[in-house]
Predict the 3D structure of the following.
Amino acid sequence: MLVKSQRSNDLLFTNYPTLFINNETYDDIAVVAPKTLNTDDFKTLTNIFNLIGNFAKSNTGRIQFYKSMPSQNVLKNSNVIVLGTPRNNSMIKKLNPNLYFKYSKNFDRIISNEKLSIEKDYGKNIGTAQLMRSPYNDKRGMLVVTGSNTKDVYLASTQINFQKNIQQFTGDAVVVDMNNAHYGYRFKKNKAIDKSLENKRTFSKNSQLILYLGLALIVIILIGVGVILTVRKQGHLNGGSKHGGK
């Protein structure tokens, strides 16, 4: 029986948004938003923090909003949320090589990858939510909600605003098109946020398994020895009875 007594270490949407929460409050979140927010941007922010806010029981944690790319020190020590288009948020362009769903060279559309073949015009009208390992700290998470236009960014955010929506996705990337058709994908092979922690937990689980198997083997051996001794004793008694009879 597996009892979940530890905080999940998975960097997948099955663990969202708890990777941004620690001790029931915000876990050093840096939010990088467009300099000028329009209606779609405000709705996107609302959707993102609707679910995160439901998991935060207090506001004592640390969360900071930025209108431009934060310092390397901030990025290194924070879980990062980035939202917007390549035109209204320059950080999207800088992150493009790290994205699962990347933009074309002129940043006007999302291009095909190993998971999805994207037609040119279709790529101009889709939004994505991508849950990545932060390129600034591999023990931190990064959520990127983006699209070629703000409407598509908003559509992508509609899949991560409620538990009933996010539970449809077990991977680390979501694609939503203009018809609100949505698809989930998984790209990263190692789902652990903290790889060293994952190794420790794996070793601990295996150690417990080996201990239990060892104890079970000892019990089996003791039972086997007991059966053998009983059979031998019974054989001697039966042999002794027959000898005495003669």
Residues 1-6, 197-202 have pLDDT under 50 and may be disordered. The longest helix spans residues 195-245.
